[in-house]
Amino acid sequence: MTISAEERRARIFEVVRDLGTVRVVDLAARLGIPAVTVRRDVAALAEAGRLHRSHGAVALPDSAGGFSRAESRDRVVGMLVPTVGSSFDEVIAGARSAAATAGARLVLGIAPYEARDDRAQVERLLESAVDGLLLTPNWHPGHRAEEHDWLAELPVPAVLVERKADPAGPGAELDAVGSDHRHGVLLALRHLRALGHRTVLLAAAATPGRRTGSAPATPRPSACSAWNRSRCSTCSAPARR
Length: 241
Prior knowledge:
Elements: H1 5-19, E1 22-23, H2 24-31, H3 35-47, E2 52-54, E3 57-59, H4 66-72, E4 75-81, H5 88-101, E5 104-110, H6 118-127, E6 132-135, E7 158-161, E8 175-177, H7 181-194
Parallel strand pairs: 4-5, 4-6, 6-7, 7-8
Antiparallel strand pairs: 1-3, 2-3
Helix pairs in contact: 1-3, 2-3
């Protein structure tokens, strides 16, 4: 039987009141509720001032002002990315702007494609007492789902960025956001059409996270193809018949 969010949170509050400090994973096991759902409910209860959460555990706000100390610091959002200096710069800038608007601070963790140390970087972010995580895991071709079981045990709310989890994988219950690449291509085509182009040649390089082989991705030059002999003022590529 499905229970409402209000009922779940009431049960969570009762267990914490009876047991004192409880790990989120233990709380989930005790209540028979997915850990990711419990984390969201705990976050909502903490936001309302009814619970205090820290490093994977939850407790009642203490009379000595433990909760007020947590409230007094800035909110911190940890972000895991595989690289900087690429298209991810725009993603990071957008996340930083959104965090600032919400009164939060963004802390960056970088796990290069080749290193495959996502979990270690996330652990470092958690040590910074982050309140939430934005995650772009290094899901290389052929990776095993069990390599990322830790995604189901995160002590804070998390959202996948530019990644879609396998429906049967450990990140399946996490929220996910990503770029609308199809819409981006449509906008680019409309732009080129407005410049007078009639035929467009698309040349693209595979991103490291999506390579199927071991050879490094090598960008190829792009060219705009048009029915006239003008040049594209945006990309400066010579037009061709």
